Amino acid sequence: MIYFDNAATTKCCEKAINAYVESFKTFGNTETKYKLGLSAKKLVGQSKKVISDVLNVSEENIIFTSGGSESNSFAILGCAKANPLKKTIITSKFEHSSIINACESLKKEGYNIIYLEPNNDGIISPEALIDKINDDVFLVSIMMVNNEIGTIQPIKKLVSIAHKYGALFHSDAVQCTGHLKIDFQELDLDFMSASAHKFYGPKGIGLLLCKNKLNIENIIFGGNQQGGLRPGTEDTQSIYSCSKALEFVNENREKHYIYINELKEYLISLLRENDIVYKVNSINNYPFIINVCLKNIQNEGLVNYMDLNDICISYGSACNTGILKPSHVLKSIGLTDEEANSSIRISFSYENTKDEIYKFVQLLKTYISKINSMFKFD
Fold first, then answer.
1. Structural domain containing residue 127
2. Is 319 labeled as catalytic in the residue annotation?
């Protein structure tokens, strides 16, 4: 099996798997006061220390969630609840569906949602934010790296603009946490989302980093776990495994980045050498993701063909692939329906190889030849 869909989820690294299994011995409830519970609480504390060191965030400002979608929803809805005097949120048209749907739910309650348009390279410019922001905006939410096309946003500049107008800033960093060097305090973010399964950790565990917990309120109810902000018994095993995955990816970040950039360049060179007509759908500044439009090719058919040949690729966010309409991300950067439906996403990990890329391109060339001859395309 060749796996080129690491933007959807990654394979757990050995360090994360071993931590998960090992921590089952420490099965106590972190809220109990006997030794077994205190041992579990200590394990959570050790995990927070790792996350704090890697992302430069205070340990008390780390909130554990069930994943990126919950972290994003929590940031939007919890911030709105804590800041009732203002009613406007600014976000973009190519955010993850968890951001857009949370904002749309607030819109039904009378909130004003302003959607910024990215340019054709998928960048939200500082000028675009300046043009729309006003004193009624309490939150700006822009993702750090897009999960479909891989563009990196000028987050620090956008944060500075938001703060000048008294607005808080949230960034969905689910796609790039661990893979890029992120300094939460240096970026001056108010909130940041992350998810372990995107950096070689387990599914079902996410992070919401907060600068000041007074700017957010709980959106689910229960006990006093995590200060009552995110109630529910803490998942010690997933938390510990998450921290070990983050530790692993941080230790290998520079090496992995250089290697994966080589893989991306090799893929592009093979597409050219094999005369495959393609267009890259973004600026190639994040090597882990490449989204390409292939002339006269329907992406769903190609994905199925590759699957039959034991190669995993995708045609967009895994959260939206069951929806039979063109990607809202690709539409937002100016692609037509036809172009969006002819686009595929290939996303790499450190375990991928050039041999795998070569096999993929040869199969792609065969498939395109079959389609062109079948439909008499030039």
1. 14-251
2. yes
Distance (Å, whole) CA 78 – CA 71: 10
Structural domains in the chain (count): 2
CA distance 43 to 235: 11
Pick from 210, 287, 295, 205: which is nearest to 254 by CA? 287
192: its two tokens:
């940041």
Can you give the pLDDT of all 378 residues of the chain as single tens digits?
999 999 999 999 999 999 999 999 999 999 999 999 999 999 999 999 999 999 999 999 999 999 999 999 999 999 999 999 999 999 999 999 999 999 999 999 999 999 999 998 899 999 999 999 999 999 999 999 999 999 999 999 999 999 999 999 999 999 999 999 999 999 999 999 999 999 999 999 999 999 999 999 999 999 989 989 999 999 999 999 999 999 999 999 999 999 999 999 999 999 999 999 999 988 768 999 999 999 989 999 999 999 999 999 998 655 555 556 889 999 999 999 999 999 999 999 999 999 999 999 999 999 999 998 887 655
Residue 253's SS3 state is helix
Backbone CA torsion sign across 63, 65, 69, 73: negative
pTM reported for the whole predicted model: 0.94
The answer to whether 240 and 28 have CB atoms below 8 angstroms apart is no
Q: Do 77 and 25 share a domain, yes or no?
A: yes
Give the separation between CA 60 and CA 301, rounded to whole angstroms.
Answer: 48
Annotated catalytic residue, options 79, 242, 312, 319:
319
Q: How far apart are CA 206 and CA 244, in angstroms?
A: 13
Same domain, 193 and 237: yes
Q: In this structure, are 223 and 267 located in the same domain?
A: no
